[in-house]
Structure formats: C-alpha cells, structure tokens
Amino acid sequence: MNCYPYGPDDQRTLHNVNSRTNDPGIDLNPYLNFLLDINTDFPVVPNSSCPLPPSSSFVSNVSRQYSQATIESINSLPPYPNGPTCSIPQSKSYNSSQYGQPTKLGCQIENGTLERLDRLETKLAKIVETVAQSCASRKTGRSQSQTQSKETSDEEASQVCSPLQPKKRPTKNEFSSYADEEPKLPKEKPRLSASKSSQLRQDIERLRKKKPPKLIPPANFENEDVSSECDYEVTKPDSKEDAEQSLRKEITSLNQQLQNEKERQKNLEGELERASRELQAINSELNTIKSERKEKDERLGKLQSDLVEACREKKETEQCVHTYKKLSSRLTCKLEKAQLREQQLKANLSVKEAALEQLSCLQKENECLQSEIRRLNTPTVTKQRSSIQPTETDQAAVRKAVDCALKKATSKFTKFHNEEVCKLEKNLTEAQKTIEELQCQLQQTLERKESLANRLKVSCNQMEANLTTFRSQENLKERRVQELSAELNQSKSRVEEVSKQKDEEIQKLQKTVQDLQKECGRMEQMKETIASLHSENVDLQGLKQTVTELQSRLRCLEQERDLMRSQLEQTKSENCCLKRQVDQLESGPNANRDQRQIDNNTREELEKIKKELTAQMEAVRAKDKSIEDLQDTIQKLKRAMECTSKSSSPDYEHLKRRNRELEEVLERLEDRKEELKCQLASTETQLLESNKAHQIINAKWKEKSAYISRMQTNLATQQARFEVREEELRQERDEALEKVQSLERKLEEVSVRSRETKQTEMQKLRCKYEEQLAKKEAASKCSEQAYRKMEQRVQELTSELASQKKQLCGKFNRLGKFLQEFDAD
C-alpha cells in the first residue's frame, strides 16, 4: 500500500521531503509524533486537493505549545551568573566533545543548563502522563460526540498566536468534538503582540494562494467502489469567499438535517413517554388492586384466626367434658368398690355375730355344767376339800384363758373395723373433693361457653358488618383479578414485546443519528485539519530560528570550555612541580618506581575521565566535584611541602590516604558513567519508536480519504431508512392505543360480573355462619343437659352415702353396746 500522502501526478518524485530522514512526508518532531500515535487509533488524513481557510490544527497547536512551554519555562528560570542570557531551550542530544575543559564558572553555567533540562524533562513526563490518562478516558467515551459552530478565520489566527496549553490528540469517535472547540488559554500567560499576529496572518494568506499537491489514493482498496470514488480530483474554487460560502452552505444544510432529525427524535420520545405513562397508570391501578387484595386477605386471615381460636376453645371444652365423664366413671367405679366393701363388712359382721352366739351358747353350757358340778359336789364338800381346791383353780384358769381370747378377738375386730371406717371416711372425703372440683370445673366451662358464645355472637355480628362493607369490594376485585389475570398477562407480554421493539428501534435510530453527527463533525474537522497543515510550515520555520539561536548559545559554551581547558593545564603544571618535589624527598629506587606506576595509573584514569566528559554532557557535575577535590588536595599538598623539612614520613602516609580517596572518587565516576550510558540507550530507543510512529501516521493518512467518501453515501441511505422506520413506528403506536382501549372496556365488564358473583358468595357465607351458630347452640344445650344429669347422679350418690353412713353408725353403736355388755358379763 502507498503510505505517502503527497505526490505529483506522475507518482515518481514526491514533494515535501522530510529534512531529517530524507523520506517523503511531513517533517515534525519525532517525540511529538510518538505521543500522537499513542493517543490516536485513526490519525487524520490530509485532503490536500481541497484548499480551505487555515485553522488551529492539533499538530500545529501541540508543536507550538511545546516550543512556547519550553521557552517560557527557561525564561522563568534565573539567568546565568556571568554569562550570556538566552531564553531558548537547550536541545537534549547535542555532543559535548566539541568543547574543551570546563572552568569553575563554565561548570556552574553547565550545571544551570542541566538543571533546566531536568526540569523540562519532568514537565514532559507530566505531559505524557496526562496524555496517557486522556487516552484511557477517551476509549471509554468514544460514543459521545459534540458538534459546534465553526469560527471565523480571524479568530483562528488569533488562536494560533495565543500561547496554548498542551492539547491531547483526539480519537476517531471524539474527532468531531475537538474540531469546533477553541483552545483553552492559561490565565497567567499573556497574548502575543499585534505585529506578530499580523505577520502570521500574512503567512496564512500566502499559504492559501499556493497550489496544494495532489492526493495520491492508496494502491490497494478492499472496496472497488471506494477506489473509483477516490480517483477524482477536487477542483479548486475560484476564490476564498466562494470556498467559505460553499462550506457555510454545507454546514447549514447539515445543521438543518440534524435539527430535523432531533425534532423527529423528540416527537418519537414524546409518543413513547405518553405510552409509558399509560402503562404506568395501568400498573399503578393493578398495584392498588393488589394492595387492597392484600389488605382484605389480611383481614380474612385475622377472621380465620379468630375462628380457629373459637374451634380450639370448643375442643378444649369438649376435652373438659370428656375428662368430666372419665372422672364420673371413676367415681362410679369407686362407689361400686365401696359398696362391695360394705357387703364384705356385713358378711364379716354376720360371721362375728354367729361366733358370738356360739360363745354365748358355750358360756351357757359352762354355766350349766358348773351348776351341776356344784350340785353334785355339795354333799362331799367337807370330805373332799383337798380335791375341791384344784377344781377352783382350774375354773379360774379357764376363765382367764377365755377372757384373754375374747379380749384379743375384740381388739382385732375393733382395729379392723376402725381401719375400714377410716378408709371409708377418706374415700368419702376424696369423693366430696372430686365432686366439688368437678362442680367448679363445670361452672368454669359453662362460663367459658357463655363467654365464647357471646364472643362468637359479637364476632359474627362484626363479620356480617365487615362483610357487608368491605367484603363486597374484596370479592369483586378478587374475581376481577382472577378473571383478568390471564388477559392482563397476555396484554403485558404483548406490550412488553412492542415496547422492546420500539426501544430497540429507537436505540438504532439514535445510534444512526449519533453516527451521522460524528461523521459530519469528522468531515468538518478533516477539512480544518487539512487547512491547518499548511499553517504548520510556518511553525516549522519558527522552530528553525530557535535552532539557530541554540547554535549561537552552544558557541558561547565552547568558549567557556576553552577557558576551562587552560585552567586545567595550569593545574597540571602545578601538579608536575609538586610531584618532582615529592620524588626528590622520597628515598630509594623502589619507592620512585611505585610512585611512577601510581602516577601513570592516575594519568591513564584521568585521560579516560576526560574522554568520558567529552562524550557525555551529563557527567560534568560529577567531574566538577572531582576537580574541586583535586584543588583541595593540591592545597593540602602545598601545605605538606612546607612541612616536609619537619617530617617526611607522615606526609607520605597522608599522600597514600589521599590516593585511596581519589580511587574511590574514580569508582563513583565510573558508576555514574554506566548510568548515563543506560539513559542514552533508553533515549535512543524512544527516538526509534517515535520514528516508527511517524511512519505509521503517514500510512494512516490514506484511510481517511476513503472514509469520507463512504460517509457521504451513507448519509442519504440512512435518512431514507429513518423516514420509513418513523412511519412504521407511528402505525404500531396507533395499534397499541386501540388495544389498550379494548382492554379497558373488558376490565369494566369483568368488574360488573365480579360484583354480582361476590354478592351471591356473601349470601352463601351468611347461611353458613347461621348454620354454624345453630349447631353451636344445640351443642351447648346438650352439654347443659349432660351437666344436669351429672348433678342428679351426684346428689343420688351423696344421699346413698349418707344412708350408708347412718346404717354403719347404728351397727357400730350396737357392736359397742354388745361389747360393753360382754365385758360386763
């Protein structure tokens, strides 16, 4: 591909040759070209075949800014102490081998220049950092474009004269925004004089009158149509005014087209906003319906919870009744057991009565026998006294045994009887307590039932009131929502699809409009940049003048170096004299040889240092330090020569120490030399990269010419598509509005139906609640009847227990009387 933008008709000999590399193209500062290539993805292509009024281009602004910033930064620094004052920046790559040995004053001057160069390097580093940051930020914001009105040529000329801040290279997407922006002026820096501005205007007019070179299209195009379009030559307008009028007409036409497109966009946005508002209103209505439905659901939940509590209380009462039934069954079991025990006691009493009757019979028989024995023994009382005594003793023993047996039997019987009576009394007390507890529980249950019945009645009344007031609307809305949920979902899906399609189409249209705006801005800026390239030649001439001034400054520095060389020769002669005196004082040939070897080594090292100083300017500082150290050593040697008459050996040791110190200084200088070599290598690499960047920029100029022709063809096609798409969107909007109206009608019909259905449901619910209340009242009546039966049964049991008590008490009284009589007998 052909990467040279300028050339004649025959394409053999090329114009505008680069003076530095003898290559075709534009001669610019390579460092600036490197920066520009870093910050631009698509550099600007100069369209030399259409002469336009000059404007402040990016390259000219950057070169002008760089030169003015360097000049002003050096002017702001303090002048030389005893040298010529000059406000021109030093070039960083000049060779110091042309100059001689520096004097003390010359070293100070060079130190000042080096310090200034260091400051300039820091400033350039800051500029590079800002440019890199702007590159990162621009890549994110390439879609944004700004178009502004074009300025007059007089204002552009004044901008060219004004000192500008360092400007950043625009990217492909931001090219239109930089075309119409004015360069920002610093507040502290003043404007140039009127004479300079008039000179610049004259130079601009001369450049306008010159014939521009022909633009050579690239050799290989991907699209053949574009290559055919690039073959034509733009005819030069007759005069400046015609060109300006044609440009203004084009600009006005483009602005009108953009305004029309903006108006269309606004209309579409208004329609979309209306549709969105309608959708929002529908959504708000649905949200209100949902909120009301939630509130009603909460109320229903509360009522359901109340019913659940009532059911729980009912279950608890049923459980209590069941427990009461169990307790009653247990009491009946206990009463039956008590009856069985009474029967057993009665049987035992009958057995005891029979035994007592048998005992009474035996006693009677004994009495009869005794009486008979007495009768039989009356005649023989006197005769048989001896025999009568044992009979009496036998009777007494029998009586005692019978009494003991009776006592034991009565004690056992009384104990058993007392125990059984105590048990019966305990059972009776327990039964009375359980009966009292059951009575209390039954009373509590009845109270609870009454309270629950009252609550249920109140809740039912409240339910009826609430259902009459609120439930009607709730049921209507619920049915309405249930019936319309499917239809609303379908309508929502359709509306969402239509809205998505519209949004996509609007985004596409916005993108196309933005692309059109960007392309218009790019075309305007391309024209401005092409005209500004002609003004860059004037800037290059100013740079040449600065170079001549720098050369004059370098000559001054050469004179100072000559003075420094003469001073160094004088110091050498003094050193030689001192060395001769030291050689005379020293004794022995070996010492002379060592000293000579040391001197030879020091001389060789000094020659190496001198060569390094001539090769590298930045090592002057370190060498100045070494020269000062040598002057100090010379003074010390002079003092030592005065004291040689007193002591020669300590002076020799002192000289050795001083030589060691000098060797250390030389090592430091060598380290500094290596560092400077590394810096030189880095600067050379930067220069190579900048040269490559310059070549890449020249290669990219050709892409813009084809791009402009493509954009012009795309404008008409996109406008036609935009109009067709606008009509389609209007038709879709009308259809969507009709659908929304039909849905609203359906919603009204459904609301009427839902109201009717909810009224029927209300009546059903009332019937259900009335039936439930009747059932609960019947159940409460049944529980009351059961409670009355239980009370009757308990009264019967208490009466039976009282009669049994009375009977037992009578029996015990009889037994006590019988026992007393038995004891008395």
From TrEMBL:
Domain of life: Eukaryota
UniProt KW keywords: Coiled coil
Acidic residues compositional bias, start-end: 222-232
Biased composition (Basic and acidic residues): 181-191, 233-246
Bias-annotated ranges (Polar residues): 84-101, 135-150
Residues forming coiled coils: 421-807
Transmembrane stretches, start-end: none
Keyword set includes Zinc: no
Annotated spans, Disordered: 74-101, 135-246
Protein name, entry field: Uncharacterized protein
Organism of origin: Ramazzottius varieornatus (Water bear)
Highest classification ranks of the organism: Eukaryota, Metazoa, Ecdysozoa, Tardigrada, Eutardigrada
Encoding gene per record: RvY_15659-1
